[in-house]
Amino acid sequence: MAVGKAKVIDQSSMTVEEKLSALFKLQQVDSKIDEISVLRGELPLEVQDLEDEIAGLETRIQNYQDDVKEFEQSVADKRNEIIEAQALIKKYKEQQNNVRNNREYDSLTKEIEYQTLEIELCEKRIREFTQQAQDKSAIIAESKSDLEGRMIDLNSKKSELDRIVKENEKDEQKLSKESELLEEKIEERLLTAYKRIRGNARNGKAVVAVERDACGGCYNKIPPQRQLDICMRKKIIVCEYCGRILVDPAFGEE
After folding, report:
1. Model pTM?
2. In sequence order, which residues have a C-beta less than 8 Å from that of residue 210 and are 6 or more positions away?
3. CATH class of residue range 43-169
4. Structural contact between residues 193 and 27, judged by C-beta atoms closer than 8 angstroms
């Protein structure tokens, strides 16, 4: 089975009217694509925002969990220090029973007092670390609750977005292909101008018809002579106010 070759379009031989017609048709197709995008609304951005927020919450939870582990390790270290201090106290007390003079006894007493203070300090640190770990754990629990809520919101919005995309997928693909084919008919310079104007236009319309003697984009009045030139379709005319390409209103009836 022979594969048909794409038709080569001689853009240089196109009349101004044909160029305007191609631009007008392209605008109609692109506007329909825009309408589908409007149906999706802010959902894609909302999904992205939720995904970013969820990633941030997950990082926050992980960081707090690491902090809790550090506090727990610090508590364990301090408990080991207490055990070591208690062992030293026991050792020093045993040594006191075998001292030869008061100086040795007093020296051991000071060591016992020092280790006792170390134990008290360790117990204080243990209380502080335990409280900090509990505070962080409370934040983790709250953050996990927030995360769960955000996940529910994300799944809901994703489902809604997927439904809208699925409902319009075939139409959007068809329109996108039609838009590509129409673009092939338009010379590069004119297509670049069209896309630039379209990108700057609030409603995405770069080509508009004259409506009630005014520009169909910005609604500023068009002088009668200029309207006549537009109807003649002999040259490409843009609105002096908004820069949109103006076409004969009869284009919409063809």
Report:
1. 0.57
2. 216, 222, 227, 230, 246, 247, 248, 249
3. mainly alpha
4. no
CA atoms of 97 and 164, how far apart (whole Å): 87
Pair 40, 161: CB distance under 8 Å: yes
| Class of 11-39+187-253 in CATH | mainly alpha
Q: Which has the closest alpha carbon to 242: 214, 213, 218, 219?
A: 218
Which two three-digit tokens encode residue 42?
A: 């802010």
**Edge-to-edge strand order for the sheet containing 214-215?**
214-215, 207-211, 245-247, 237-238
Summarize pLDDT for 105-154 with one digit per residue, the tens: 999 999 999 999 999 999 999 999 999 999 999 999 999 999 999 999 99
Phi, psi at 225, each rounded to 5°:
-60, -40
DSSP three-state, residue 245: strand
